[in-house]
Amino acid sequence: MGSSDALAIYKQLQEKNIKFLDYGVLAKFTGCTNKNTIYKIADRLIEKTVITRLTDGKFMVIDSNLNDFEIANFLYQPSYISLESALSYYGILAQFSYSVTSVSTKKSKKVVINAKEYSYSTIKDELFAGYVKLDSFLIATREKALLDMVYFDTKGITKIGQGDLDLNSIDETRLQEFAKKYNRQVNSRLNEVLNDRQ
Question: Are residues 11 and 83 in the same domain?
Fold first, then answer.
């Protein structure tokens, strides 16, 4: 693959607004069905700085102006931004989260790319809900992010400190609707958190 071929592919990716790709997308995009050839095409596109490797088999188009939340959604699917990252995004948690935190129905996992950690915590299928698409990423609603945080707090995975949360923007009716899906232990801890408002 020459520079002109790589440039042509780059232009096509830009025109179709493709920011992420894996080997399957690359195969569809190039029309190639041979796995070894697809791997070689990916390596050449990396050499020509058209794409960059995020993890094994997952790539990002150079100059895509992507944020960490978009990358987190792509790296591990299905997932949505939640916990500390979502609460910080909404201004509910004043502390900045160094790790991009998400929940998934898949096994818990951590991925580090360019010194940025992406962490995924496993949640039950029936609790994998309450998220919306904002801009180009999936994120828990304020209420669901709080419940996810409380859920993982009861499991000892996260920790909610006294006075850490500003809950003024929480819709209590919506929160109570979501809370019905959770067990008594989570609801009891949620009540403690609500009673500890700033």
Answer: no
58's tokens: 């997952």
Helix (H, G, I), strand (E, B) or coil at 140: strand
Count of domains forming the chain: 2
| Contact indicator for 134, 162 with CB cutoff of 8 Å | no
| Interacting residues of 149 by C-beta distance below 8 A, sequence separation 6+ | 82, 83, 84, 87, 158, 160
Q: Are residues 104 and 175 in the same domain?
A: yes
Same structural domain for residues 18 and 74? no
pLDDT tens for each residue of the chain, 198 residues long: 566 688 888 898 999 999 999 999 999 888 899 999 999 999 999 999 999 999 999 999 998 889 999 999 999 999 999 999 999 999 999 887 889 999 999 999 999 998 999 999 999 999 999 999 998 999 999 999 999 999 999 999 999 987 889 999 999 999 999 999 999 999 999 999 999 874
149 with 182, same domain?
yes
